[in-house]
Amino acid sequence: MKKLLSLMLAVAMIFALAACGGGGEVVDPTEEAGLIKVGIINNDPNESGYRTANDADMKRVFTEENGYEASFAYSLKNDEQIAAAQKFIQDEVDYLLISAAGTAGWDTVLKDAQDAGIQVILFDRTIDADESLYVASIVSDMAKEGQTAVDWLASQALEAYNVIHIQGVMGSAAQIGRTGALDVMVAENENWNLVTQQTAEWNAETAQQIVQAVIDSGKEFNVVYAENDDMAKGAVAALDAAGITHGVDGDVIIMGFDCNKWALEELLNGNWNYDGQCNPFQADYIDEIIEGLEKGEAPAEKVVIMEEKGFDATTITQADVDQYGI
Amino acid sequence: MKKNSVKSAFLGLFRHQIFIPIAALLILVIFNLVADPSFFKITFGHNNAGDPILSGNLMTIFNNASELAILAIGMTLVTAASGGQDISVGATIAIAGSVILRILCGAQGPRPESMQAPIIVAFLVACVVTMLFGAFNGVLVSYFKIQPMVATLIMFTAGRSIAAWINNNQLPVIKDVSFGYFGNYIPGIPIPTPVFIAILCMIIIALVLKLTNLGLYVQAVGINSHSSRLNGLNPEFIKFITYVIMGLCVAVAGLIKVSRISTINYSVIAKDIEMDAILAVALGGNALGGGKFSMTASILGAYVIQFLTTTLYKFEVPSDALPAYKAIVVIILVVLSAPIVREKLGQLRKKIAPEKATGEA
Q1: pTM, rounded to two decimals
Q2: Chain B residues with CB-CB distance to A230 below 8 A
Q3: Is A172 in the same domain as A319?
Q4: ipTM of predicted assembly, 2 dp
Q5: CB-based contact (8 Å) between A243 and chain B?
């Protein structure tokens, strides 16, 4: 039964491909035979709220109603992801969508995909491989996220910036990008100082301890720049316990990243000042690219950088929370 | 005469197991006293809710070491009885936290306006769940004779996924402030609640060890499970029960952890805490191969670890170098606490001490 089904699918796919090659006709997606087969390789959705939202977005778009037959594989390990990619190639998917756990080691499997006529689209994370091996990559520009946040902070026109900088896991793309802009600003300006710069490894409690240590040492500070929402929450817990006011009209500016729904609610309530978005909603971009490819059009740009916002507590609305909260 | 008795008391202490964590603690205290005596300052203030609180590095240490001290209790028993460690405690804390939040959220989705069940109910269910997972580990170790580290590797790998699955991958947030009491402060009481919870756990385990034969049986099984069987004990059951107790400790630690921030992050909650718990046992001078144990020394070890962490934060050790500093200190402490080194040191001390004693006389 399974064999028969796969045979039928294979035949159907040949027809579909033939149709594409022939006149560039659009295959009616409502027809069972016209389903586009995609293999999606992602990181474990439990990894973070970001990943959960990302996975949910993928599942929202790549459905049978939208003309896709999607298979999913999850792993936080590069080798397991590569094995999953090999399996998808054997299954003869039309498109391979990859959010790679690590940047290296993908060349061979991507060549295999190319030989098998499978188009590869990278999302969320880029890899160290020749650009010819994939048709497009849809990524966040973490350095831009950091720059947007630091620009916002600079626009607050404080007399002095004494910043507690709480970093993510050292070496991760998000940490490097979000740290970069702040480091430059501190190096270039006399009135910008880092009170402390420590990694809390995305962990709320560690962030709480770091801020607690600064408070206990009696140092002055007026900004907490946390590289994700969890750590900002931990920092705020330490401030609350010490009786230090924060947020709009408070003594300390609180900045976070990722735009979790609860974090945006903190902004709405004026407890925090800023939250930078890391856009997990790539599925629509990918959908558009695949649609174009099916028509025989190459994507306009190889690297698509997603639009990302920064929210200010004084201007955020409930509609923003509902739309952008993850 | 008096000097001699002091000396022998000191020697006794030196030979005693608890010497290592106390010495480590003393070194840290002296280091901080020399470097910056204000480290020990405790100030009285008010938090943003207007309640009185005590703050300072010492309070931070007592507060944050609580979970580790509670876990050290279970880990000591597991280590002594089965001669191996439970490396799944971090992952099962995630499960305990997830269960608690799931029950408090009820059918209201991940952001309920109010709690849907009393906290005690959620906590008790979490206790049952983690004790079941403890029992699972215990069965694998005691009845299937699987190496403890390998047996608990299963939950170590799967635990965080299970925790996420319990809440359908959502991140629940409890808005009710009373849920935060367990990990923060009860209004009007200036000392953080986890300190009281840890002390309560210590009192309970002290009573259990004093009033029951658990300690004796655990040591007997750990030293030689074959001969303990010949003496009428059931070594499998003793090992099994230590894992169940570990499960109970995990539930308590899980409650504190999720209460601290009123939410959970499955991948980072209590991350690597199993390693710190094992380290606490090692620092306490307990043989990691099982057998005799000292509960007091293990708990003290937990506070030493937190003391070290807070000291490193206080002196703003560069973030990427922090694990390296910790590793160096740990290597020194563990080497010092190794039985062979202690024996050698003891011999050395004996050689020097009598000469000195005669010289003084």
Answers
A1: 0.82
A2: 261, 265, 268
A3: yes
A4: 0.83
A5: yes
Contact B189, B53 (CB under 8 A): no
Whole-angstrom distance between the N-terminal and C-terminal Cα of chain B?
Answer: 9
Q: Residue B317 in contact with residue B325, Cβ under 8 Å?
A: yes
Tens digit of each residue's pLDDT (9 = 90 or more) over A133-173: 999 999 888 889 999 999 999 999 999 999 999 998 887 87
Closest CA to A204 of A176, A227, A178: A227
Nearest to B15 by CA among B317, B271, B349, B325: B349
Q: Which domain holds residue A64?
A: 2-140+280-295
> The domain spanning residue A316 has which CATH number?
3.40.50.2300
Identify whether A291 is part of a domain.
yes
Residue among B111, B268, B310 minimizing CB distance to A213: B310
- A319 shares a domain with A170: yes
Q: Which residue has the tokens 């295999």?
A: A112
Query: From the list A213, A233, A244, which residue is nearest B313 (CB)?
Result: A213
Q: Which of B206, B245, B258, B224 is nearest to B99 (CA)?
A: B258
Over the stretch B312-342, which tens digit does the pLDDT of each residue have?
888 888 766 767 877 887 787 678 767 788 7
**Per the CB < 8 Å rule, is B164 touching A210?**
no
Nearest to B45 among A205, A233, A243 (CB): A243
Cβ neighbours of A44 in B, within 8 Å? 161
Distance from CA of A132 to the nearest CA of B (A): 35
